[in-house]
Design brief:
about 260 residues, Rossmann fold, 2 domains, five-stranded parallel sheet, 7 strands, P-loop_NTPase
């Protein structure tokens, strides 16, 4: 193995305390909020003109993320930009240990789910835009939701999951975050899950009833302060139509303009 290729390098702003230092490889580091000189040097090393912009479309299950992202990707490509949209997933059927819920392995399954979502952030080449329709923080929200706590994950298991959940927090803090809300989200969720269940698809979690689902919605909303960079965060209410994505896209454009002006 080429050590120089694999080793981690540290990239920090001046004035940081030692315990704030994190280690990133070059491609991970370029996604951080770096000082100008460090960023220029890193881009030169990678042979890139610009760093990719991460755009995260967040929201509860059934809110309409996929529809928004699909249209946004088409629009970004129409503008001549290269887009990376990764869909790495971990499913229960990928490993015999995970096929049935168990106290021994449930934390590991959920941790691997998060690892695959993390891959969506950092596996790219030289695209202009990286778009995500699911963020690893959703696993944090799930574990905070009472209806998800069925006694399968111990506090220590949660701790090990959370280490992976917050692994790229500094990168996420430098991303544009759009949190979607939709009054029809419950109907969307139950309709989708019922269809999947009828086709024999085994979900990672049992289908929620309306009370449990609305509890999850409440937790998602209450914990939005997990995104600390308010200047790159917006809430957008959408509908089940073919126009709401434009509303989201305009918010992204505004945030990008504010970022560039700054």
């Amino acid at each position: 193995m080429d050590y120089n290729k694999e080793k981690k390098l540290k990239y920090v702003k001046s004035g940081r305390r030692w315990d704030d230092i994190k280690y990133f490889n070059d491609k991970e580091a370029v996604l951080l909020d770096l000082e100008d000189e460090i960023e220029k040097e890193l881009l030169k090393k990678l042979g890139w003109k610009n760093k990719p912009q991460i755009i995260i479309i967040d929201g509860v299950d059934g809110v309409g993320k996929s529809t928004v992202v699909e249209n946004m990707i088409k629009q970004v490509e129409k503008e001549g930009l290269k887009v990376r949209f990764n869909t790495f997933k971990r499913r229960r059927n990928d490993d015999e240990r995970f096929k049935e819920l168990s106290k021994k392995y449930e934390w590991l399954f959920r941790k691997q789910v998060v690892e695959e979502i993390n891959r969506r952030i950092v596996e790219f080449t030289n695209e202009d835009v990286i778009i995500l329709d699911k963020l690893l923080y959703c696993e944090y929200f799930y574990q905070k939701t009472k209806s998800f706590n069925r006694g399968y994950i111990s506090p220590y298991g949660n701790h090990r999951m959370e280490k992976e959940i917050f692994k790229y927090k500094k990168i996420i803090d430098n991303a544009i975050i759009i949190f979607l809300e939709n009054k029809e989200c419950w109907n969307n969720y139950i309709g989708r899950e019922t269809k999947k269940n009828n086709r024999g698809h085994k979900a990672s979690y049992e289908i929620l009833n309306e009370k449990e689902y609305m509890d999850m919605v409440k937790i998602f909303k209450e914990h939005q302060n997990i995104y600390e960079n308010e200047g790159k965060y917006r809430k957008v209410e959408i509908k089940n139509d073919n126009k709401s994505w434009e509303k989201v896209y305009k918010q992204v454009e505004r945030l990008l303009k504010e970022q560039n002006d700054y």
